[in-house]
Amino acid sequence: MTSTRRTAAVAGVLYFVTHVTSVTALALYGPVLDDDRFITGSGSDAPVILGALLEVVLALAIVGTAVTLFPVVKRTNEAMALGYVGLRTLEAGVVAVGVVPLLAVVTLRHDLAAPSGAVPLGEAMVALHNWTFLVGPSLVCGTNTVLLARLLYRSRLVPRFIPVLGLVGGPLVFASGAVQMFGLIDQFSVGTALAAIPVFAWEICLAFFMLTKGFRAPAEAQPASAPSPTRPQPAAL
Questions:
Q1: Could you tell me if residue 221 is inside a domain?
Q2: Segments forming the whole domain that contains residue 37
């Protein structure tokens, strides 16, 4: 296995890790996000703590995708590739910040003497997590998706339809996040789920192609043009 093929495989695995951890963590967070009784002592802490651990793994995998892909995509445009790494790292940072409030809720439900006093503070912690979820996986992710999709579209390291999904999905998920910020649609609704489909398809297709096929060879991506024939020079007298 060549170095480039190994890089593509690692990046593909990391992208799959981001999807598995994010979806599983959201499912495990159900009690604390949807039921106020959790804050006052109903239910087990274990799903929330496990969800928090998975989101930490998610944040690490997000950074891992950027670091892994940077040496490859910087050949197309180093400044844009560096911007992708920076935004991907910012996304991971926002995700990690969102973990802390939910862990604080777990502490509140045990250590606060009056459960009634825990509810408003616990709800504020949950709201903080929801805002980080909106900023990171929607606004920041939408922006870095466009950068990477643009780099891959220009380099042709993957089939063109894959970056096209990213170029469509990135602005769409960003717009969805902006609309949610103004309260025009709910954060967890059918509309937001539909808006996320193209960017979800982009990441899944990209991960699958990198894992199974690797990157296309540069010669295949940008074939060299045939040299023009040299015009014969007149013989010297």
A1: no
A2: 3-212
Q: Are 21 and 54 in contact (CB under 8 A)?
A: yes
For 97-114, what is the mean pLDDT? 82
Distances (CA, A) of 201 to 177, 179, 191: 18, 22, 16
The whole-chain average pLDDT of the chain stands at 87
Indicate the SS3 state at residue 138: helix
Alpha helices in 74-160 (DSSP H): 78-111, 115-134, 141-155
> Residue 163: which of 209, 218, 217, 95 has the closest Cα?
209
By CB neighbour count within 10 A (0-12 exposed, 13-18 middle, 19+ buried), where does 160 fall?
exposed
The one-letter code for the residue type at 195 is A
More confident residue, 88 or 191: 88
Looking at the structure of the chain, the number of domains it has is 1
Instruction: Kindly state whether residue 58 falls inside one of the protein's structural domains.
Output: yes
pLDDT band at 164 (very low <50, low <70, confident <90, very high): very high
Domain assignment of residue 234, yes or no: no
Q: Establish if 232 belongs to a structural domain.
A: no
Calpha distance 108→40 (Å, rounded) = 9
Four-point Cα dihedral 83, 56, 215, 81, nearest 10 = 10
Give dist(CA 144, CA 64) in Å, integer: 14
* pTM (2 d.p.): 0.86
**Which among 160, 41, 25, 167 is positioned nearest to 112, based on CA atoms?**
41
Residues 95 and 62: beta-carbon distance below 8 Å: yes
